[in-house]
Structures are given as structure tokens and as C-alpha cells.
Predict the structure.
Amino acid sequence: KAGVTQTPRYLIKTRGQQVTLSCSPISGHRSVSWYQQTPGQGLQFLFEYFSETQRNKGNFPGRFSGRQFSNSRSEMNVSTLELGDSALYLCASSFAPGTGLDEKLFFGSGTQLSVL
Amino acid sequence: DQQVKQNSPSLSVQEGRISILNCDYTNSMFDYFLWYKKYPAEGPTFLISISSIKDKNEDGRFTVFLNKSAKHLSLHIVPSQPGDSAVYFCAATGLTGTASKLTFGTGTRLQVTL
């Protein structure tokens, strides 16, 4: 079955603009989480959605937001882009959160965002 | 504050030898640990995990060791193969978290040479 799909693959924006990234989870998966990967910080948790509700949120400013649709697809939005927002944004899906610690995340290939 | 630390950004090992990747954590609430492998232009893929009730978990060539008193875990790859060349991330979560909310280290780039 198809994996986690993220679009677009690459994105170039300028400071002050906003951006929307999209994620389609594995069929049947209802939980979607987002991570930011930067060289110095590794992967940092942004937020998690399940049944169209945000369940967890990481330590990021309010410029970072997200949502989940009834078909489990998710989008994240970053407003008023800053140079430091340049990163690889990874989406991960799982069947459901809290179903057990053996649950594994399945990551997409990410969207590489460059802010100029 | 980095709660999960991978102090070696890179490691080079000869094919056939053992690769040892290390990870330290500071949050004593963490009780489940995972290793992910990431190739360029791909998302991380799950490799192996260990619960705090164990001190060792083995899966083929991959073994993870956990030393709770030292808050340290390590991933051993034996024997190392060229296809193992990738970035390895250590991740942790706690009882109050879910597998969806992981705290990751900064990664170690492993290069397996011929």
C-alpha cells in the first residue's frame, strides 16, 4: 500500500510570506504528526492530529499551525516566514495515538522549505 | 535543552566490523526508546526499539542496549554493511506520551567503508 505522501517536495519562499504543506497518511492511518528537521536540532515535534483534533503540540511559536481533515489528510501552515524556518518538514502517520508503545510511526520523505 | 543527545555527529566503520552508535538522555520520564535510520531524500524508517523493562533487544544484525542508571543507550550493528550508511536517530518517549510524540536526538551519520 502507498506510504505517507508529502507535497510539495521542495519549496522556496521569501521572508514574510506564508506557506502550506500537505500530508496524506497511509490508508487507514488516522493519526498524523509533524516534525521539523534542521542540522543542529535534529527532529523536533511540531504537533499531532487525530480525528481532526490537535492532541499534542510542541514548543513552536503560533506562526506554526496545522489542521486535519475528515479523510485524515493534514496540512501545516507557517505564516510570516523567517530565515530560521528553513528546514525539512516531515509528516508521520500511525494507526492511532495511544494504542500502545509498540506503535510505530511511518514517515514521509518530507518537504524541504528554503526561506530566502 | 536537548533531552536526547547524540554526541557523535559522524562515525566511519569498515565493512564487516561492528558499528556502535551512542545516545544519552536526561529526562528520567522516558521509558521507551527507538532508533530510526534515514537515507538522503527519504523519511526516517523505524529500525529497533527497547522498553525500559529490558536492557537489551536484538533484531538480526541490530542490537540495542539500555543502561537506565547511566541514562544511556547504544545501537550495535554487526557486521556493518555498506547499505547501513545513513543517518541514525535515537528517539525517546514516556508513559504519558505516545509513539507519535517522540523526542529525537540530532543524529549520527554512519559511513561504512569497503
The longest strand of chain A covers residues 42-50.
